[in-house]
């Protein structure tokens, strides 16, 4: 069993028994896709909501383009599109509550963009642990599809 680390503005896919992890999700959002029949998972660590206006940059950096690329890669290694479910985590408000400009609401916008593209692609969102003001580290088990969330100062939970 290998631990596969997904960096910031990165995405990876894996098969059972590997575990996909990404560290330090603040305003970034971690999006997982999982096929429980084939036991194949994918994880993207996105920083910004939309690719529009940033064409030519790394597609894994943006919620909309990263999810489409993740879908392409996971089906390429054997996942069945109709069997996929999604989970998302992160999207925290990391800059204190005094800053209320749209730019400061990047975590909220990342989560909203992720949910919107998943809805457009008709991929059901099985669990959502977004918002708050704490960073998260997440681990996706390709064996069970369980998403372990470690939150600074709040311990661990599974969704």
Largest sheet: 5 strands, mixed
Q: On the 0-100 scale, what is the average pLDDT?
A: 93
Radius of gyration: 15 Å
Record the strand order, biggest sheet.
1-3-8-9-10
Say how many strands there are.
Answer: 10
Task: Specify the overall morphology.
Answer: globular
Helix content: 10-25%
Q: Distance between termini?
A: 21 Å
- Portion in strands: 35-45%
**SSE pattern, N- to C-terminal:** EEEEEHEHEEEE
Question: Spans with pLDDT under 50 lasting ≥5 residues?
Answer: none
Tell me the structural class.
alpha+beta
| Number of H/I helices | 2
Task: Report on this structure.
- This protein is of the alpha+beta class.
- 18% of the residues lie in helices and 36% in strands.
- The protein is built from 2 helices and 10 strands.
- The chain has helices at residues 63-76, 106-120, and strands spanning 3-5, 10-15, 19-25, 29-35, 40-46, 84-90, 125-130, 136-141, 147-151, 155-158.
- The strands form 2 sheets. The protein has a 5-stranded mixed beta sheet, with no helix packed on it. A 5-stranded mixed beta sheet has the order 2-5-4-6-7, with helices on one face.
- A hairpin with a 5-residue loop joins strand 8 and strand 9.
- Helix 1 (63-76) crosses helix 2.
């Amino acid at each position: 069993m290998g631990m596969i680390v997904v960096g910031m503005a990165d995405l990876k896919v894996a098969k059972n028994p590997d575990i996909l992890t990404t560290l330090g999700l603040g305003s970034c959002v971690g999006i997982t896709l999982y096929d429980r029949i084939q036991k194949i998972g994918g994880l993207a660590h996105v920083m910004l909501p939309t690719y529009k206006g940033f064409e030519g940059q790394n597609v894994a950096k943006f919620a909309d383009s990263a999810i489409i690329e993740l879908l392409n890669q996971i089906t390429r290694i054997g996942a069945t599109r109709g069997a996929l479910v999604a989970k998302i985590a992160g999207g925290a408000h990391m800059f204190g509550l005094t800053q209320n400009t749209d730019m400061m609401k990047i975590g909220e916008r990342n989560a909203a963009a992720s949910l919107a593209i998943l809805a457009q692609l008709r991929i059901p969102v099985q669990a959502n642990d977004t918002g708050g003001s704490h960073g998260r580290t997440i681990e996706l088990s390709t064996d069970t599809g369980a998403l372990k969330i470690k939150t600074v100062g709040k311990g661990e939970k599974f969704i």
